[in-house]
Structures are given as structure tokens and as C-alpha cells.
Write a structure and sequence with these properties.
Oligomer: single chain
Structural class: mainly alpha
Distance between the termini: 61 Å
Number of helices: 11
Largest sheet: 2 strands, antiparallel
Shape: globular
Order of helices and strands: HHHHEHHHHHEHH
Radius of gyration: 21 Å
Length: about 300
């Protein structure tokens, strides 16, 4: 019987074409199985006499659960179902990575918030109290840590780690595009639930409408830029600690900002933020660009000497 590594080599699992094919199969399996899983859950809820969530929302959740569950056989096939394969082998650089990632995240999102203040893009919510702000703060911190940990384990840890076989630059860039695109797969359209097994696919088909909206272009580009930064941090420090810290900072600040203020839709310079969340956008992109230049200049002494 072939060992896992021998079988992988024989079937091309470790070659570039094998890695690419395995990723395509992974994605295809997720989109094929998640709608069926959602319908099974929906029927199970009703059989138990409980009121299930709307099928389109359940299908969106099922996509996440199946995508994470399918990582186990996919990583095992590539021999990466371990700490290193998930980007957890940080060694002694974890603390430095977390500090750098947190500072990168804070500096970039702070630039966008400064622009929002200077151009009066956001207004404080009425009746804000210290208790409300404190509640918003701890909820934002919790959400930031959970979202960042799950998404970085999945995308920068597992997926980027496997796709490095196709080239470091490609892996970082491709995962950044995937990361950005995933933010626009949303359960916006309810479906008529006929209790048929294909209803989940109907729900899935309605989740891509935001991708064709040109008003989301600035948000998409901003998220691609964010993904590039996260991918760079993952490779620079050899693990996901720095990317998790940066990502968590972004999510926390964005959620806190949205919970304590509202977007002025009549502002003259509204183009600086995207309709995606009212925080990131072209202003955030500019902050990322300036940060990227600073990172390059600090890591290459020749750059600073030439300026």
C-alpha cells in the first residue's frame, strides 16, 4: 500500500499542476456540498419541530463550515495537516510578529479614519454613553480576534501554504484576490423554499450579485490590498501570528467605528470610503500604499539612501 507521500507524488499531488488541480477540486467540492449540507440542516431543524434560519442564510454559513472541514483531507493529502501547514510554527518570532502586525494594522486603518475626520465623512451616533462604547469595544475586540484567527488559519495558513508550490508571489497575490472576493459572497436574496434538495443551489446562485456592482470596486481593491499585506506578513515572519494581529486590528477598529458612528451619505468626499462598509475604500488604499513604501524602504537600505 502506498504511503501518503508516495501516493501524492504518484498522482502529481506535489507537482505544480497537482497542487493547482487539488485546489480546483477543493473549491468545487465546497460549492457542490455546502448547498446540500444546508438543505440537510434545514430539514433537520424542521423535523425537530424548530424554526430553521432562512435557507439563504443557512447556505452562506454552510459554505464556511464545509470550506473549513474540507481543509482536513486537502491538507492531509499534501502532508501539511500540522502546525507548520497551518502557519502556526512561529518559533521565537511570534511576539515580534504580533507587535509588527498590530502596528501595521493600526497605522493603515488610522490613516483612513483620519481622512474620515478631516473630511467629515462620519458622525457620532446619538446618545452615546461610556457603557455603550465599552460594550462596543469588547464586542469588537472579540469579533476581531475570532474572525482574524479563523480566516488567517484558513487562507494565509492553509491555502497560501499549499499554493506556495506555485510560487511565492503568485500564492500571496492569488490568495489576496480570493480573500477579497469572498467578502462579496453574501446571502442577499431570499429563496422560495419548496423543501427540495436543489433549493440550496438556488440560494447559492443568489449570493454573487454584489460582485457585479461597480460601486463595490473600491472596496474590492482595498480588500485585495489588505490581503497582499497579510500575505506578506505571513511570509516575512514564517507564520500567521503577524497576519492575525494585523487582521484583528482592522476588524476591531472597523466594527468599533461602525458601532459608534454613522456614515454621512451627503458628504462631499464620500468617494474616499466604499459602500462595502463605509470605512475602507480609496482612503484606506492610499494608507496601504504609503505603508508599503515605508516597509520597502525600511527593509532595503539602498532605497532610503536613494531618496
Amino acid at each position: 500500500m502506498l504511503s501518503q507521500g508516495a501516493a501524492s507524488q504518484r498522482l502529481g499531488g506535489t507537482s505544480k499542476s497537482g497542487v493547482a488541480l487539488s485546489f480546483v477540486l477543493y473549491v468545487a467540492a465546497v460549492f457542490a456540498l455546502a448547498p446540500l449540507f444546508a438543505v440537510v440542516l434545514h430539514h433537520g431543524w424542521m423535523a425537530a419541530g424548530a424554526q430553521p434560519p432562512p435557507l439563504h442564510q443557512l447556505t452562506a454559513d454552510a459554505l464556511k463550515w464545509v470550506a473549513l472541514g474540507a481543509l482536513i483531507p486537502w491538507l492531509r493529502w499534501h502532508g501539511r495537516l500540522n502546525g507548520e501547514g497551518l502557519g502556526l510554527a512561529c518559533g521565537g518570532g511570534a511576539v515580534k510578529g504580533v507587535l509588527v502586525g498590530g502596528l501595521v494594522g493600526l497605522a493603515s486603518i488610522a490613516f483612513a479614519l483620519v481622512l474620515a475626520v478631516l473630511f467629515d465623512l462620519r458622525e457620532w451616533r446619538p446618545n452615546l454613553t461610556g457603557a455603550i462604547v465599552f460594550e462596543a469595544l469588547w464586542q469588537s475586540l472579540l469579533a476581531g480576534c475570532l474572525v482574524a484567527l479563523v480566516e488567517e488559519l484558513w487562507l494565509r495558513g492553509a491555502v497560501q501554504g499549499v499554493l506556495l508550490a506555485l510560487g511565492r508571489t503568485f500564492a500571496i497575490g492569488f490568495v489576496a484576490v480570493v480573500y477579497a472576493a469572498l467578502h462579496f459572497i453574501r446571502p442577499d436574496r431570499a429563496v422560495d423554499e419548496s423543501e427540495g434538495w436543489l433549493d440550496g443551489y438556488t440560494a447559492l446562485a443568489g449570493m454573487f450579485s454584489r460582485m457585479g456592482d461597480p460601486d463595490n470596486l473600491d472596496g474590492f481593491i482595498a480588500l485585495v490590498g489588505a490581503g497582499l499585506v497579510l500575505g506578506y506578513l505571513r511570509e516575512k515572519f514564517g507564520c500567521i501570528a503577524s497576519a492575525v494581529a494585523c487582521h484583528a486590528t482592522w476588524v476591531c477598529v472597523i466594527k468599533l467605528t461602525r458601532r459608534t458612528s454613522t456614515l454621512d451619505v451627503d458628504a462631499a468626499n464620500l468617494w474616499l470610503v466604499s459602500q462595502y462598509d463605509g470605512v475602507i475604500g480609496w482612503g484606506f488604499c492610499l494608507g496601504l500604499a504609503l505603508l508599503a513604501v515605508a516597509l520597502v524602504c525600511t527593509t532595503r537600505a539602498t532605497c532610503t539612501r536613494s531618496l
